[in-house]
Amino acid sequence: RVAVVGAGVTGLAATKCCLAEGLEPTCFEQSQDIGGLWRYTEHIEAGRPSLYPSVISNTSKEMSAFSDFPFPEHFPVFLPNALLLDYLRRYAERFSLREHITFGTTVVSIRKQPDFATTGQWNVVTEAGGKQTSHVFDAVMVCSGSFSEPSLPLQCFPGIERFRGQYFHSRQYKHPDVFQGKRVLVVGMGNSGVDIAVEASRVAAKVTISTTRGAWLLSRVFERGYPWDMILNTRFMSLIKTNLPGPLSWWLINYKVNQWFNHENYGLQPENSWLVREPLLNDDLPSYILTGRITIRPGVKEFKDSSVLFHNCPEEEPIDIVVFCTGYTISFPFLEESVVRVENKHASLYKYVFPTHLQKPTLAVLGLIKPFGAIMPVVEMQARWVSRVFKGLCQLPPQSVMEKEVNEKKKNQIQWFGLTFDEVLKTEWLVYLDTLASFIGAKPSVLGLLCTDPWLALTIFFGPCSPYQYRLGGPGRWEGARQAILTQWDRVLKPTRTRVPAGSSSSFPSLLTLVGFLLLLAAVIFGF
Fold first, then answer.
1. What is the pLDDT of residues 226-239, one digit of tens each?
2. pTM here?
3. Which residues are listed as membrane-spanning (predicted)?
4. Which residues fall within 8 angstroms of residue 167, CB to CB, at 6 or more apart?
5. Measuring CA to CA, which residue among 225, 309, 304, 214 is closest to residue 263?
């Protein structure tokens, strides 16, 4: 019996993967419906993520799909939140997940049973309708997400206590009406911050974004009009990034992100451009900077009564409203700190999933990761691995080996990413997926396929690393995986070729035949 905490994207994947392995999941959801982050509500609910109605996915539908359940072909390439929720409902219906979800039930505490050392069991206390109930489970999957508790470090902003205007965290934002005719300051330059700044600039008198570090900016519409992640997240590109010498790799990243526009000319160049930064996705910001709707400023030095002073800027700037886009705090109030300890927004988890010190590997945290790509295939792969560990089909390394890797990874993250906010949760998307897939025997063999199905092998290596690749073989093999891979570009073009009849797949795959075998030879040399 497995307890699953939360029925958002991660909880649904976890429940489905438990069922696939013959386990008995019970998913506890404190609200009355599935969807988690992607279920929009006009009012902010305590303990639940909150999003604004204009939110659109930053990753394309083909790269975001669960590995055995493609999005409908008529869905747009990037999904408005309502359509993504529709997809999750279809997923829950297709795999009969709702009957395993207990709605309106909050998990109050999760504690080890007295005989945990031998049984690995957990005592789970839930509350529904004011009544608490105690359950015993053989294992637990924590799928509660990390977008419920806003981080608002006001102590880092001198003078905020005397600021007479309005200020709030981005979690409270719903509609741009509040900015009508106002002078707006957005503090922080994550995806939400840029989205809110763009929306505010359409009605506000003036909008300023304050960013200490800057950021790389990508458009959803990438080279030749194709989705950014279907061009950048390929096995070939990953091979280049991970095998090139450091300086050359960073030059390539700089070159790629500056092809759209020169970040330095727009005040966006990251402070330490050699550090890996999660790129922002926004299609409007450069033009809004060009037309004066949005101004980019450095970090806030001090707030005054009705103005703000920025670092390296002598003049005060008058403002009426401040939106703090300062991220979220990661916490697990239902868990003892000895089970999962969070420091600097970092939990010491093996492969971002398993606590390293438990006598029995019967508790896992899913979704606590920031991949450079779609999150849905990642949490699904985590769930596939975890369910097989719970079942005893996959073994974890000894505790000392896991702790050593966690500590080494943390050092590397500080070196590559810089230890600020949730940077330590970031990881290379494809490498991570392949690692977990290899644990369960689901990593596709490009070289093996080259002998049996060469066109599929070339498509997998040079084309997008869509999640269906991880259903070609191994446990949970899906008969439709090959067809889904070979028709992925058809589903991308279907909703856009609406004026003339849609032809076959894009011309992109035809490029494979020109350079395919030469580049695949390089893959063999590198031992990919």
1. 999 999 999 998 88
2. 0.91
3. 508-527
4. 160, 321, 322, 323, 324
5. 214
